[in-house]
Amino acid sequence: VQLQASGGGLVQPGGSLRLSCVASGFSLDYYAIGWFRQAPGKEREFVAAVIWSGVRKSYADSVKGRFTISRDNAKDTVFLQMNSVKPEDTAVYYCVADDHPYWSGTSPPTYWGQGTLVTVSS
User: Which helix (H) or strand (E) holds 47?
Assistant: First the structure.
């Protein structure tokens, strides 16, 4: 089971970035998937999650209205569209998956991928 995240980089405040995560070794069809992040010197925190069908999504208050999570089950891929980014969004972003198809980010996920660094700076 592997989750490969990509799309991180340097972006200016107010800009946009889209992260992607591809699963290999298993199908994401019946897994809830999501994103966590860890800023320098801080603990990992939940960012967003989407249930197996894509119908229900959950977001941290800090990103609501700015970030959008989506999934493409046919391609075993999850996306995080980040708009109106702020310097406090700077962090390593981790793609995650959970065995429970209705997981909404309120408990530690089953699987963690490697992270991709997002830096918001002018």
Answer: strand 45-50
